[in-house]
């Protein structure tokens, strides 16, 4: 998440008391954690899924066609809404009742498959069925629009979400550089298709921090992976809540969690004064650029000299703002170091993450394994093909991405609250976030395909 911290920390303007090696591409060493041996690294095994629909092998457009925007449409990227603030309603949740009610919910996602008549109708289909689709989105947590021809291009995809009445907003981590715009004027971000990360499994997460959370998302496939893999993952946060061991769920809820989003390793033998100086530089000059509430903490994972950027205390369970259904609202499946060390992972150490209890105690291996089991039992591993769109209620469903080979092009637009002005707020895009986004994406594009 904070991959550019190391890059930025090496800039001369920050006047660090020592030098940090620049992140040149090189073979990655075997990673270790509190739960992995330095003598015998754990085996990396691709995670499973509860549901795995089959591919249909539908063709799509060539890149020079699907990337075309409609010049007649206004530029919505320049004055796009800021991602809205996270809505927390996590106090006094009856966990047993929440688990019981979640078991009664329908499968996520709902699937709507296009007929020939639907595709002939084009935008008119979505205008006529928008209310129904939005209702299914609320009921199921996600809707898979499968086999539609209109959203096979940037211009057509915009027609779809405009017809549905969705209001675009910035990515909650716009300044992190994880995503660059595929079409800025259409408020469309490129998904994590970067060749350098194609061997990295992206675990389940909401597009959310303790500070900002998009209300909805629409993921679109323009080009499936040309060789293999690249399935899109989606899971219902309410069903994960129902699936998880009640004792662990209560322990996590009562103790809350903190998420470490980056590691910066400094020489452990440095004098405390120099370490404190470096910590202050990062805290004041770098961390604020990420629009997150972060605390810089040394050695929270036990590694000497390691400075970690750690999010503030937050609840792993939240009530949905509209339905009030308790849901698993936590990115632990994606961020737990124990799980990352045991599955395909393609990020350098600076970008490695972890999840702690609120007092910074580690989850045990058994507790990490239960988060994995409960999460993956609820995954639907989608074979998204050109024109497929997955609409996501970002407070209900979590998403991720499997590894892939070859070239792949998926994209996403984020949406704010279109039916609640108070929740949406009046913040508009601030250009001060753009510089860091562009720096990091240039760095990631520069890396070789298998760094």
TrEMBL record:
Signal peptide: 1-17
Name used for this protein in its record: TauD/TfdA-like domain-containing protein
Domain TauD/TfdA-like: 126-410
SUPFAM superfamilies the record matches: Clavaminate synthase-like
Entries under InterPro entries matching the protein: AlphaKG_dependent_hydroxylases, TauD-like_sf, TauD/TfdA-like
Keyword terms: Oxidoreductase, Signal
Pfam annotation, one family: TauD
Keyword Nucleotide-binding: no
């Amino acid at each position: 998440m904070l991959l550019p911290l190391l890059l930025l920390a090496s800039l001369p303007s920050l006047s660090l008391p020592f030098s940090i090696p620049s992140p040149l591409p090189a073979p990655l060493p075997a990673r270790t954690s509190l739960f992995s041996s330095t003598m015998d690294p754990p085996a990396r095994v691709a995670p499973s899924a509860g549901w795995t629909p089959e591919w249909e092998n539908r063709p799509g457009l060539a890149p020079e066609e699907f990337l075309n925007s409609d010049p007649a449409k206004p530029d919505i990227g320049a004055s796009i809404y800021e991602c809205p603030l996270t809505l927390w309603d996590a106090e006094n949740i009856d966990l047993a009742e929440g688990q019981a009610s979640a078991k009664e919910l329908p499968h996520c996602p709902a699937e709507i498959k296009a007929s020939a008549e639907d595709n002939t109708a084009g935008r008119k289909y979505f205008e006529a069925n928008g209310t129904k689709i939005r209702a299914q989105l609320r009921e199921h947590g996600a809707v898979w629009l499968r086999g539609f021809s209109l959203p096979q291009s940037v211009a057509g995809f915009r027609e779809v979400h405009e017809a549905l009445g969705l209001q675009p907003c910035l990515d909650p981590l716009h300044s992190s550089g994880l995503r660059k715009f595929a079409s800025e004027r259409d408020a469309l971000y490129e998904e994590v298709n970067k060749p350098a990360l194609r061997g990295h499994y992206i675990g389940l997460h909401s597009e959310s921090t303790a500070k900002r959370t998009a209300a909805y998302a629409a993921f679109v496939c323009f080009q499936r992976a040309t060789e293999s893999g690249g399935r899109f993952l989606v899971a219902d946060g309410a069903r994960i809540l129902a699936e998880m061991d009640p004792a662990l769920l209560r322990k996590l809820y009562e103790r809350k969690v903190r998420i470490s989003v980056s590691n910066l390793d400094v020489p452990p033998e440095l004098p405390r004064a120099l370490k404190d100086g470096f910590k202050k530089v990062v805290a004041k000059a770098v961390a604020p650029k990420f629009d997150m509430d972060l605390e810089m903490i040394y050695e929270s994972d036990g590694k000497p000299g390691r400075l970690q950027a750690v999010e503030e205390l937050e609840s792993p369970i939240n009530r949905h703002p509209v339905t009030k259904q308790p849901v698993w609202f936590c990115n632990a499946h994606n961020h737990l170091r124990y799980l990352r060390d045991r599955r395909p992972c393609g990020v350098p150490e600076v970008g490695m993450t972890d999840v702690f209890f609120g007092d910074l105690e580690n989850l045990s291996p058994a507790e990490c394994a239960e988060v994995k089991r409960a999460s993956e039992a609820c995954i639907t591993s989608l074979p998204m093909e050109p024109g497929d769109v997955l609409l996501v209620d970002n407070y209900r469903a979590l998403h991720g991405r499997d590894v892939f080979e070859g070239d792949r092009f998926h994209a996403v637009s984020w949406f704010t609250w279109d039916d609640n002005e108070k929740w949406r707020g009046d913040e508009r895009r601030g250009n001060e976030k753009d510089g860091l986004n562009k720096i990091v994406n240039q760095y990631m594009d520069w890396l070789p395909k298998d760094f």
